[in-house]
Write a structure and sequence with these properties.
This protein is of the alpha/beta class. The chain has 12 helices and 11 strands. A hairpin with a 5-residue loop joins strand 6 and strand 7. The N terminus is likely disordered.
Length: about 350
């Protein structure tokens, strides 16, 4: 190779560098992900929404139920947790009892959940928050930080809290023997290997459906659900699936498929694109989550270093609101947080959720 040939590559290399920098700047502006990528701007989100009537929402819910195919079982009481020995909960305001239960996961296994009951409920009657943990690893239960502050404030406000973990996270088993199609079992520690079982999504939702059945049987009629990250994704699906959830808060939980490739870190774990590949548009799930006069809140942290950051969700907000209005009515809101610089539940979001619980329950 000659010296001149080597020199001729310089403009080409510089062009590549400038292209990469330009794409990065489309996503990031002065440390705040505030601009839309051109490929996002090229999409009209209203054209992607397939639900326009209450019947459309009902049909979507039936199809989603068939995909999840969860068969909830009964919660099994295990023990009372002596929170007087725990410094965090010993002084918690309005906390009467913590109990530990077993809940089926849909694949022949059980996971522990924790129920936190208040000394006194709100004047409007019994209310509950289902708090769904995300991908935080072993031992990082949904009753631990970053969820703990929201849990304690909700109890103080007069609603009980049930903390549920995602499979392979928190206090859930870290490995499972899966019943494989055609017979036999398979040892796995990864969500993507649920694809090999008959009901791939059941392990994510069977526990929550069991909790809803229990709450309903006990006369708890005002129910909210919240989750961060993978827990936010589960909240999106559950709100679309089950009308017993009156208010839903998905925190850094999802994005529609058309923008995932253009927002850093937002392609999602296996279960997220599986929903899209199964024929479900996330925009439709947002509409269904706010249907029948309910409230759905899409919460995004503008400076989230993990995923689903920036103001990108504002690109489709008006389209979702319009579809909610024609499909039976409800309340869809986008909440953008500017305070958090980590993948967490910031105090601003916690206070927003608790204030709505106080207002509407």
């Amino acid at each position: 190779m000659t010296e001149n040939a080597s020199f001729d590559k310089a403009p080409f290399i510089m062009k590549i560098i400038l292209t990469v920098l330009t794409l990065a700047l489309c996503v990031m502006s002065s440390g705040v992900r505030a601009q839309f990528h051109p490929n996002i701007l090229a999409v009209n989100p209203a054209n992607l929404i397939g639900v326009a009537t209450a019947q459309d929402v009902s049909d979507l819910r039936s199809e989603l139920s068939a995909l999840v195919r969860a068969e909830p079982g009964d919660l099994q009481f295990r023990s009372i947790y002596s929170h007087s020995q725990n410094g965090t909960y010993a002084s918690a305001a309005n906390l009467a009892e913590i109990s530990i239960w077993r809940v089926p996961q849909g694949i022949g296994t059980y996971a522990p959940i924790w129920r936190f009951k208040p000394t006194s409920y709100r004047p409007g009657g019994k209310c509950a928050l289902i708090l769904y943990g995300g991908h935080h690893g072993a031992g990082h239960h949904a009753s631990h930080p970053p969820y703990q502050s929201l849990l304690l404030k909700t109890i103080e406000a007069g609603c009980e809290v049930t903390a549920v973990d995602m499979p392979f996270n928190g206090l859930s088993p870290m490995a499972l023997l899966l019943p494989v199609r055609g017979g036999g079992v398979y040892l796995t520690t990864a969500h993507e290997e649920f694809a090999y079982i008959d009901r791939p999504l059941a392990p994510f939702f069977e526990a929550t459906l069991s909790v809803l059945d229990t709450l309903e049987s006990e006369g708890v009629n005002n129910i909210a659900m919240a989750g961060l990250s993978g827990g936010g994704w589960a909240t999106v699906v559950m709100a679309a699936l089950d009308e017993r959830i009156d208010m839903a808060y998905s925190i850094s939980g999802s994005m529609p498929a058309y923008m995932r490739s253009w927002v850093l870190g937002s392609t999602g774990d296996w279960e997220q694109p599986f929903i899209s590949a199964s024929g479900f548009e996330y925009l439709d799930l947002y509409v269904a989550g706010a249907s029948s006069g309910r409230k759905f809140r899409n919460v995004h942290l503008i400076n989230d270093p993990c995923c689903f950051a920036g103001t990108n969700a504002s690109h489709y907000t008006n389209a979702v609101k319009a579809a909610v209005a024609t499909s039976g009515g409800g309340d869809y809101t986008l909440f953008l947080d500017t305070t958090a610089t980590s993948h967490t539940v910031p105090d601003t979001v916690r206070d927003f959720i608790v204030q709505e619980i106080v207002t509407y329950f």
